[in-house]
Specification:
Length: about 200
């Protein structure tokens, strides 16, 4: 049994990840801290460092947080770009950058991206761009990780559980059940792969 920190546990993707982590001890964290073991803000280095210090010993970090702004490219402001970059891109890079100081030897980090960087739709340019950045980050940083630490991203299509919210924006997409996406998180945590983008598409 591994001890896993699941960041974003209350969200739709967090709940999907949870379905794949059943055989482990899962420590939950989120921005509000509601129904979670710990409160954390992934956009704050201080908050991430405190989380890792407070948890102490952990074998894996699974992050399902990456808040994105949605607008057309011509209308998206620099502020909207920056809030997406600071959460979905830098927040996730900092989860690994700071977390590698604290995680056990041969531990793993699993990050979240999303299919829109390979199947673009209107309004999602910031989500797509930062997902592409994180997919590139995991592929390249895997070569630099110390002490056998692994790092992968999960790149899912839209969840059935989120179809009501995103379905209208995504004509022609086939949603997948959260349990299928949970399998990809399981593969990342329990397998031996590193530097991989694990796609889950229909
Ligand atoms: N939903 C989908 O179908 C789908 C498909 C592919 C990819 N994705 C990607 O998955 C990610 C999560 O999406 P979601 O649908 O799960 O969103 P969601 O249901 O809105 O959940 C977001 C979660 O993130 C937490 N959070 C927000 N900002 C945070 C911060 N600064 N620090 C720590 N936690 C924070 C929230 O915590 P609190 O509740 O405590 O505020 C919430 O639990 C996004 O990047 C999205 O692009 C989603």
């Amino acid at each position: 049994m591994k001890t896993i920190i699941l960041i974003g546990a209350n969200g739709k993707m967090g709940q999907a990840a949870l379905t794949g982590l059943g055989k482990h001890k899962v420590i939950t964290a989120g921005r509000s801290g509601d129904n979670c073991d710990y409160q954390v803000d992934i956009t704050s280095e201080e908050s991430l460092r405190k989380l890792y210090k407070d948890v102490g010993h952990f074998d894996a970090v699974v992050n399902t947080v990456g808040v994105c702004e949605y607008a057309t490219f011509t209308e998206m402001t620099e502020q909207q770009w920056m809030s997406t970059v600071l959460s979905k891109m830098m927040g996730q890079i900092n989860i690994v950058r700071i977390g590698q100081e604290y995680i056990v030897d041969n531990g793993s980090f699993t990050l979240i991206t999303g299919i829109l960087n390979v199947k673009p739709i209107p309004f999602a340019i910031a989500d797509a761009t930062t997902s592409g950045a994180i997919d590139t980050f995991v592929k390249c940083v895997a070569f630099e990780m110390p002490r056998g630490i692994r790092v992968n991203s999960i790149n899912p299509t839209v969840l059935e559980e989120a179809w009501e919210v995103y379905g209208e924006m995504m004509p022609g997409f086939q949603p997948v059940p959260g349990t299928l996406v949970g399998k990809a998180f399981e593969r990342s945590v329990d397998g031996f792969v590193t530097g991989q983008v694990l796609f889950v598409d229909a």
